Amino acid sequence: MATSFASALSEGQPAQLDLGEEAVACLVVGFTGADVMLAPQAPLPPDALAPGFVTYLLIEAGGSLQALKAQIKPGYAEGELIATLLDPFRLGQRRTFSRAPLVLPAHLRPAGTEGAPKTTFTRDISAGGLRVAKQSSYIEADLHQVVIGLVQANREIRATAETVRVTDTDVSLSFVDIEPADRLLLAQLTFAYHRRRAGS
């Protein structure tokens, strides 16, 4: 049965890993689905990363402490961990992926059309989608071909995205077709953003 909590899991939120005889303070760096990226504030005992070791991730939600069953493994960056939640519920947030307010060049073109793509920029990105500035040249469509420019990496991410919300200033899109490596790259970019914020 799903349980909802008053507050959501969020980047920068304090948490603890309950390792039985001790607890290790952590900060939430980000999340993708059931995986929560953590920055531990102290070293973990070596057996904490043993395959199959089950622990509890302790998070305050809605004024009460929630214990979420998890398995942990090393993260993508040195000193980080991934806690894979084993409990079958979400923490009340609508988002499945962490997002970061990164400004990147982007091009949109309604799917199935041959016209020139319309240039804009992202207001935020995640492994699940993006929000872009709505330009005067924006053409409404249910599906868009999206190209996100990663200038510093000299790389582009190409995807098909569904229009989720349109306001006077923004267009929010959810990816419906994206290469797994590109989704992972977007997740890593959001984690890097929140990692820098947690370190400052």
From TrEMBL:
InterPro entries linked to this entry: PilZ_domain
GO molecular function: cyclic-di-GMP binding
Gene3D superfamilies in UniProt: predicted glycosyltransferase like domains
Residue ranges occupied by any PilZ domain in the UniProt entry: 93-191
The organism's place on the tree of life at top rank: Bacteria
Signal sequence annotation: none
Protein name: PilZ domain-containing protein
